[in-house]
């Protein structure tokens, strides 16, 4: 029986979900003392640079009081700092510190090593097949996520 386009989309969605969930569970089974929310906030600070606390809370989908508490913990740990906004001195920006960068770099090294460990158990042809699949899939998934996260796009991918 032939698959409808909608069924095809649902199957790809299910497979991507299984892949993401499986890898995330494996990588987070040893969190190195850091919650997913903390890691996500630090990663956003690393990627976007200094940001208003309200914008950080909104981007991470958590309430401002919860983000305030998280930023305070990050400050106590030396992983983030607050600074005056050069464009508006009344506003504080949150920035990642050098220690925060180092912690994320170590976290990424550990995660890559864990995935590499999984790959070493595979036959070479499976590793090659995964490599080729990733070269194809990763740019497509990155594009898909950029489109989904862009405030200026509609479902069809065109600017509104």
Description:
By secondary structure, the protein is mainly α. The chain folds into two domains: 31-121, Winged helix-like DNA-binding domain superfamily/Winged helix DNA-binding domain (Arc Repressor Mutant, subunit A), CATH 1.10.10.10; 123-154, no CATH class. It is built from six helices and three strands; from the N terminus they run H-H-E-H-H-E-E-H-H. It has helices at 5-28, 36-48, 53-60, 64-76, 98-120, 124-149, and strands at residues 51-52, 80-85, 88-96. It has a three-stranded antiparallel β-sheet with strand order 1-3-2. The longest helix has 26 residues, at 124-149. Residues 153-160 have low confidence and may be disordered.
Q: How would you sum up the major sheet?
A: 3 strands, antiparallel
Tell me the Rg in angstroms.
19 Å
Helix and strand composition category: mainly alpha
Integer tally of domains: 2
Q: Any idea what the CATH superfamily of the largest domain is called? A: Winged helix-like DNA-binding domain superfamily/Winged helix DNA-binding domain
Low-confidence stretches: 153-160
Spatial shape: globular
First-residue to last-residue Cα separation: 39 Å
Question: Secondary-structure element sequence?
Answer: HHEHHEEHH
Q: Strand portion, in percent?
A: 5-15%
Average pLDDT, rounded to a whole number, is 87
């Amino acid at each position: 029986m032939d698959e409808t386009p909608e069924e095809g989309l649902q199957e790809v969605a299910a497979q991507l979900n299984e892949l993401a969930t499986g890898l995330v569970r494996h990588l987070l089974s040893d969190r190195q003392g850091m919650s997913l929310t903390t890691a996500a906030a630090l990663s956003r600070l690393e990627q976007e640079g200094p940001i208003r606390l309200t914008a950080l809370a909104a981007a991470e989908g958590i309430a401002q009081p919860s983000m305030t508490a998280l930023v305070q913990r990050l400050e106590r740990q030396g992983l983030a700092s607050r600074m005056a906004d050069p464009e508006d001195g009344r506003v504080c920006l949150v920035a990642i510190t050098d220690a925060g960068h180092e912690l994320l770099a170590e976290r990424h090294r550990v995660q890559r090593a864990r995935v590499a460990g999984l790959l070493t158990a595979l036959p070479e042809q499976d590793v090659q097949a995964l490599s080729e699949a990733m070269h194809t899939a990763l740019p497509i998934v990155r594009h898909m996520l950029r489109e989904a996260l862009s405030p200026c796009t509609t479902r069809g991918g065109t600017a509104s």
